[in-house]
Amino acid sequence: MIPLRDDAPRSTVPFVTYFLVALNLIVFIFEITLAPQPRMDLVYEFGVVPSHITSLVHGRDMTGTGWLNFLPVFTSMFLHASWLHLIANMWFLWIFGDNIEDHLGHLRYFILYLVCGIAASATHILFNLGSDVPSVGASGAIAGVMGAYFVLFPSARVLTLVPFFFLYLTWLPAWLILGYWFVLQFISGAATAITPAGQSSGGVAFWAHVGGFLTGVALIKIFPQRARRYTYANWE
Fold first, then answer.
1. Per the UniProt record, which residue ranges are transmembrane (predicted)?
2. 190 within some domain
């Protein structure tokens, strides 16, 4: 299912969402200007490599950079593997992010985004402790935004392209779209975990999506709603 737009109203301009989309686009354009080897070096340097983190926790610094091994938990959120990877992530952020930003306010929304991204990386590391494969992408952070949307706007309608023999365009409730997506990530992550090569091979970081989504569900229940201005007309 491919969401195209939602019908949840907002009353503010989602500056942070625009900024995140622009920043991810700029970083990716920089990535593709690099030659293959420097680009690979960039991904290994600033993507999350679980074995680097776990070795440091156990007192072995594999890279010689000490605590800087933890920096990719943040920087990996702004790197992408391909145009398709980037566009898919930014599309979901564009659809669901503006309403969460409207609800929380710009600063708290940005904090939620970053915390969900960090939690997603931590979950990925937990399920891939010995992996030497770098993980990049904003999908963990965006999964957190989707988790928050799932809690706040379950009844919002999402115009969705549904492939079922043919392509169907229909309005579906947000809880169905996002719930289906989450269950699919969980099942896929479980299937990967029981595959012998699943711990070290490349591919989609399903557990990062699960961790980010659940963190968004939890944080949106904790973070206060932004203060709203009321006029006399509001109370009539």
1. 12-35, 77-97, 109-127, 133-152, 164-184, 204-223
2. yes
Total structural domains within the chain? 1
- Single-letter amino acid, residue 234: N
31-42: string of b/e by CB count within 10 Å (b at 16+)? beeeeeeeeeeb
pLDDT for 117 equals 95
Of 11-25, 60-74, 114-128, give the lowest mean pLDDT range: 60-74
Those residues with Cβ within 8 angstroms of residue 147's Cβ, 6 or more apart along the chain or in another chain:
116, 178, 182, 212, 213, 214, 215, 216, 217, 220
Distance between CA atoms of residues 45 and 196, nearest Å? 27
pLDDT digits (tens, 9 = 90+) for 45-103: 898 888 888 877 666 655 555 667 788 889 999 999 889 999 999 999 999 999 999 99
Residue 156 lies in a domain: yes
Asked whether the beta carbons of 121 and 209 are under 8 A apart, the reply is no
Instruction: Lay out the sheet containing 157-164: strands in order across.
Output: 2-6, 157-164, 166-173
231 found inside a domain: no
**49-53, long-range: CB < 8 A, 24+ apart:** 49/131, 49/132, 49/133, 49/134, 49/135, 50/124, 50/125, 50/128, 50/129, 50/130, 50/131, 50/132, 50/135, 51/129, 51/130, 51/131, 51/132, 53/125
CA angle 173, 176, 180 (to 5 degrees): 155
